[in-house]
């Protein structure tokens, strides 16, 4: 029997922004252009394999919304192929990212705009899942009740931290923490290939969380971990997380996906 996946997603404009440049992919569900300006919540149950993703567009006005929507619409096209070829999962995800990048470059040339988007994506297979990312949207895994971050931000601040120039605490407070070094919409072919985490088996890992930086800017890792421990299911988790981020200021768009895996036994 296939593993069962409970999942929930919530996306909000926030308290400061006038438009939502985030988008997401939840096993085929995305936010359309008409839906993204209103609070969005969706929850469901599916069987593995499945794909989940969060994209945080950038560029201001409508530009960021175009980039994130392009990314999730393209994932709709590519997801059946990715799920049919799990043995070549890395290659398929890279092919998807390159396709998004080409589309964004074509849009920018045609419309004379500058835009791009981050991506954090999880492919949940039959026995394990993997998380991919490019930019500063983050992915976490749940291991024995503990929340563990598995992605590295592609920002000037985190690159300085990894080089030993500044500390992790300084990186979190740095004005360079949102200066992206890699993103979709770049003309550097290498820079658009997402980083891949290790594969996390269902035996030890019971799910994950993906989010845009609108959540992690407002809530510390310890705050997020505490909420994930007390929430009884993905729906409660995303609602408490997003409500908490809004109460702390909600200075950016906020999008969060939580998925929970049972082995089907």
Mean pLDDT: 94
N- to C-terminal separation? 8 Å
Q: What is the CA-based Rg, rounded?
A: 17 Å
Task: List segments where confidence is low: pLDDT < 50 over at least 5 consecutive residues.
Answer: none
Main CATH class: Alpha Beta
H-E string: EEEEHHEEEEEHHEEEHHHE
Strand content: 25-35%
Shape field: globular
CATH architecture: 4-Layer Sandwich
Query: How many DSSP-defined strands?
Result: 13
Number of domains: 1
Main sheet attributes: strand count, strand direction, barrel closure: 7 strands, antiparallel
Jot down its keywords.
six-stranded antiparallel beta sheet; 7 helices; 32% helix
Structure description:
Helix 1 (63-84) runs antiparallel to helix 2. The protein has 265 residues and is α+β, with helices and mostly antiparallel strands. The chain starts with a strand and ends with a strand. The mean pLDDT is 94. The strands form two sheets. Strands 2, 4, 5, 6, 7, 10 and 11 form a seven-stranded antiparallel β-sheet that branches. Strands 3-1-13-12-8-9 form a six-stranded antiparallel β-sheet. It has one domain (4-147, 183-262): PPM-type phosphatase domain (Phosphatase 2c, domain 1, 4-Layer Sandwich), CATH 3.60.40.10. Helix content is 32%, strand content 29%.
């Amino acid at each position: 029997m296939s593993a069962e996946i409970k999942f929930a997603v919530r996306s909000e404009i926030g308290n400061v922004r006038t438009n939502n440049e985030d988008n997401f992919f939840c096993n085929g569900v995305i936010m359309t252009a008409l839906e993204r300006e209103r609070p969005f919540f969706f929850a469901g149950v599916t069987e593995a394999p499945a794909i989940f993703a969060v994209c945080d567009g950038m560029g201001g006005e409508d530009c960021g919304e175009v980039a994130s929507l392009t990314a999730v619409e393209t994932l709709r096209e590519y997801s059946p192929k990715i799920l049919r070829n799990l043995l070549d999962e890395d290659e398929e995800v890279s092919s998807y990212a390159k396709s998004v990048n080409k589309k964004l470059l074509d849009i920018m040339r045609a419309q004379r705009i500058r835009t791009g988007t981050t991506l954090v994506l999880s492919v949940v297979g039959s026995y394990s899942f993997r998380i991919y990312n490019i930019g500063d949207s983050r992915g976490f895994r749940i291991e024995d009740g503990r929340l563990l971050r598995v992605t590295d931000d592609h920002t000037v601040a985190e690159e300085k931290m990894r080089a030993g120039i500044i500390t992790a605490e300084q990186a979190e407070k740095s004005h360079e923490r949102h200066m992206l070094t890699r993103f979709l919409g770049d003309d550097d072919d290498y820079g658009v290939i997402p980083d891949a985490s290790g594969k996390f088996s269902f035996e030890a890992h019971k799910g994950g969380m993906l989010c845009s930086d609108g959540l992690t800017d407002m809530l510390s890792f310890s705050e997020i971990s505490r909420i994930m421990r007390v929430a009884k299911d993905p729906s409660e988790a995303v609602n408490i997380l997003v409500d908490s981020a809004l109460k702390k200021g909600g200075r950016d768009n906020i999008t969060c996906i939580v998925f929970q895996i049972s082995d089907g036994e």
